[in-house]
Amino acid sequence: MAGIGLTGCAATVNLEPADGSDDPACAEVSVRLPGAIGDQPRRWTDAQATGAWGDPATILLTCGVTAPGPTTMRCETVAGVDWIIDETDAPRFRVTTYGRTPAVEIYLDTEVGDDGAGVSSRDVLDAISPIVATLPVDGQCVGREDATPVP
């Protein structure tokens, strides 16, 4: 008699691994990712050092991305982790760790679905920052008044 396997309704999320996804620190981040962020359940992904939440996926995480250089974009510190916030495509945001190696990048959509109920960027950063805080620190965001001009 053949067995019947049960699977979730949501399909695997197809993502591309970052060039640095094989860094052992990314493995440490990956095994600590939460089962849900807000009311968005975690989904399977098909790429190393990635995570996804929601159906449709409203949060996409990739560890091992190229660390960003100095920028004039807004930087927020959450649970001791500096995040550069790219608001170019709001209500979809790209947030990337600053001063952490390997770097982690998150794409999140704050307006998904017919009711416009997406995910709160604060919920995402509150859930992920303590996990990312384990990555080695090699810099931090500074205000304009503390920045050193690049020649």
Describe this structure in words.
- The chain is of the alpha+beta class and 151 residues long.
- The model is unreliable at 1-8 (pLDDT under 50).
- A hairpin with a 5-residue loop joins β3 (50-53) and β4 (59-65).
- The chain is globular and about 45 Å long.
- The chain has one domain (24-139).
- Helices cover 13% and strands 28% of the residues.
- The chain has an 8-stranded antiparallel beta sheet with strand order 1-2-3-4-8-7-6-5.
- The longest helix has 12 residues, at 121-132.
- It has helices at 24-30, 121-132; strands spanning 36-37, 40-43, 50-53, 59-65, 74-78, 81-86, 92-98, 103-109.
- This is DUF3515 family protein.
- InterPro entries: DUF3515.
Give the tags.
8 strands; disordered N terminus; 151 residues; single chain; 13% helix; 2 helices; alpha+beta; 8-stranded antiparallel beta sheet
State the secondary-structure class: alpha+beta
Based on CA atoms alone, the radius of gyration comes out at 17 Å
Q: What fraction of the residues are assigned to beta strands by DSSP?
A: 25-35%
Count of helical regions:
2
Task: Tell me roughly what share of residues is in helical segments.
Answer: 10-25%
- The best one-word shape is globular
Give the overall pLDDT as a whole number: 87
Taken together, the total number of domains comes to: 1
Number of strands: 8
Largest β sheet strand count, sense and barrel closure: 8 strands, antiparallel
- Note the run of SSEs as H and E: HEEEEEEEEH
- The largest beta-sheet arranges its strands as 1-2-3-4-8-7-6-5
Low-confidence stretches: 1-8
Protein name: DUF3515 family protein
Organism: Microbacterium allomyrinae
Pfam families: DUF3515
